[in-house]
């Protein structure tokens, strides 16, 4: 294991020329283009505080161009490209279409959160607290709380209980009595993209002002599970901050009693 | 809902100038930079077939620079930047560090798959079958099946049963008897990044040769669940292709009998 090897080679490349760095790495460049260094602007990129409502409306419409992940990411980064230009203008926004339906319909991570996390990482010097806030908010609030001016028809709202697309959609189907492939579910996800983009921008703005509050921390119930199953616990076999009971509904007091007794 | 609105505005922007397009959209540019069009190269970007073993070794080492999502994405796209130059050189690879530990430690989508899906979407004209193959492979094979030349020590392998970091790590802890925060688990995830990058490149190469096989389709057990719960089913409340029993272990024959009788 050689952490930071590429960074060391980066310095070597600058000093000695990329061809020599390639030889040091045991790889010879296969074409002339191989000697050109990667020249992406280092992160974080500039973040002038954005208007959460402007970005929300933008994300809502972007959803219909490229679904959930694209909606949130293009809503935020498209606005930054217009405001700041620079490296934002050469970023291929359409890449983020891959996250649709929990990545190509697999139902894993909700695309609105995948897009939010990517956008946060692009512009924040300390992305983790902002991601924690947005993921915690998404898992525990009654959503979507965004209503587009152009189609103000009321729509059922639900608590996702999870950052996962599959769970989030199933909970909404339970509350609404509607189909996971209905027009209403599609509209719900567009509004969710808008709501998530808005909360992401609100959180980025607060962080930049030095005032990001931890309004959606890991719930006490989850902290109790983590006290045994996370780093340093007596059975540290779990990674994550998701709500445990969304996938482990059967675990009750008997499990906790047995665990406390070391069984 | 105005699907394709941005594309229409894109055309309008080219014809009339971006300032007019902004006014059409009801948004006035706030700075001079706002009138500059977004100029990212359209997807897919070029894909000359890569050597799966070269990319795997690269992803293994990249893991130690930026964890799982970065490992796979930088392994593939870093190699493309060296081989092709062009737009790959201005892509901010370090963005993909956000996917570490299922996105900032949340345990959602395994970062190796998040990075693979993004890389596939960047270079494939038809990304979905490649993503399906890589996610299906990851969920059902005994992994990691990559051994680095530099540290060939054997390491326990397991079947993830899911594309989710939380489930994948827990299954590995069960098989190995080791801790989710152990040195061995970290090494396991580095090898998993290498294995996933290798299978992704193998699949992209096969697709480009017109010979991508469906070697890891949705299992029959999951197809049975989907026949009721997915699009067009009698209770279409689920989106996704994940293995159902990883989170719904208690569902047995009685559920299927009751469902068949319409209860």
* Main sheet record of chain A: 2 strands, antiparallel
Kindly estimate the percentage of residues of chain A that lie in beta strands according to DSSP: under 5%
Determine the oligomeric state from the structure: homodimer
Amino-to-carboxy terminus distance of chain A: 37 Å
N to C succession of SSEs of chain A: HHHHHEEHHHH
Beta strands of chain A, count: 2
Describe what this molecule looks like in 3D.
By secondary structure, the first copy, chain A, is mainly α. Chain A has three domains: 5-35, no CATH class; 52-208, no CATH class; 220-260, no CATH class. Helices cover 51% and strands 2% of the residues of chain A. Chain A has nine helices and two strands, in the order αααααββαααα. The first copy, chain A, has helices at residues 5-16, 18-24, 52-84, 111-123, 127-140, 165-176, 183-208, 220-229, 253-260; strands spanning 142-143, 158-159. The first copy, chain A, has a two-stranded antiparallel ribbon with strand order 1-2. In chain A, helix 1 (5-16) crosses helix 2 (18-24), helix 4 (111-123) packs parallel to helix 7 and helix 5 (127-140) packs antiparallel against helix 7. Chain A is globular and about 60 Å long. The relative contact order of chain A is 0.12. Residues 1-37 of chain A have low confidence and may be disordered. Chains A and B meet through helix 1, helix 3, helix 4, helix 5 and helix 6 of A and helix 1, helix 3, helix 4, helix 5 and helix 6 of B.
């Amino acid at each position: 294991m050689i952490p930071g090897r590429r960074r060391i080679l980066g310095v070597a490349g600058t000093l000695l020329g990329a061809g020599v760095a390639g030889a040091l790495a045991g790889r010879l460049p296969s074409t002339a283009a191989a000697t050109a260094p990667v020249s992406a602007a280092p992160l974080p990129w500039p973040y002038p505080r954005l208007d959460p409502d402007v970005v929300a409306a933008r994300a809502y419409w972007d959803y219909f161009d490229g679904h959930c992940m694209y909606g949130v990411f293009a809503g935020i980064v498209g606005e930054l490209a217009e405001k700041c230009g620079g490296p934002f203008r050469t970023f291929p926004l359409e890449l983020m279409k891959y996250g649709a339906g929990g990545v190509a319909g697999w139902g894993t991570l909700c695309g609105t959160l995948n897009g939010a996390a990517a956008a946060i990482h692009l512009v924040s010097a300390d992305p983790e607290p902002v991601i924690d806030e947005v993921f915690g908010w998404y898992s525990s609030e009654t959503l979507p709380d965004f209503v587009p001016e152009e189609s103000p028809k009321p729509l059922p709202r639900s608590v996702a209980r999870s950052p996962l697309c599959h769970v989030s959609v199933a909970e909404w189907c339970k509350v609404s009595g509607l189909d996971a492939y209905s027009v209403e579910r599609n509209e719900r996800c567009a509004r969710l993209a808008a709501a998530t983009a808005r909360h992401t921008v609100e959180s980025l703005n607060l962080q930049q002002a030095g005032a990001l509050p931890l309004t959606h921390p890991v719930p006490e119930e989850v902290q109790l599970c983590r006290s045994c199953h996370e780093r340093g616990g007596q059975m540290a076999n779990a990674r994550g901050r998701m709500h445990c009971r969304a996938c482990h509904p059967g675990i009750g007091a008997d499990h906790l009693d047995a665990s406390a007794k070391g069984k």
